[in-house]
Amino acid sequence: MSKLDVAKEKIAYLKLWLGIAVVTDISLVGWLLSNGRSASGLMVTGALLAIVSITYAALMIHRHIERKMDALEDL
């Protein structure tokens, strides 16, 4: 397998995880908006913490994908 093919596969794998993170983040925000008032404080706090963490992780994955794509220009 050439270096270009390996790099493309790594980017595709990162895009999979980025998609999972985005869908999870959207689902948590939707849950929080629909159940925020009736849920316990601990559940709301946990959801907020999860949203912040997953959003940060998605941003880091996105930045990693961008760096890998920039590196493709050299191949």
Textual characterization of the structure:
This protein is an all-alpha fold. The protein is 87% helix and 0% strand. The chain has helices spanning 3-35, 41-72. It is rod-shaped, with a radius of gyration of 17 Å.
In terms of DSSP E residues, the strand content is under 5%
Shape field = rod-shaped
N-to-C series of helices and strands? HH
Structural class: mainly alpha
Number of domains: 1
Overall pLDDT: 95
Key words describing this protein structure:
75 residues, mainly alpha, 2 helices, rod-shaped, single chain
Q: Nutshell version of this structure?
A:
The protein has 75 residues and is mostly helical. The chain is built from two helices and no strands.
How would you summarize the topology of this molecule?
Layout: H1 3-35, H2 41-72
Helix pairs in contact: 1-2
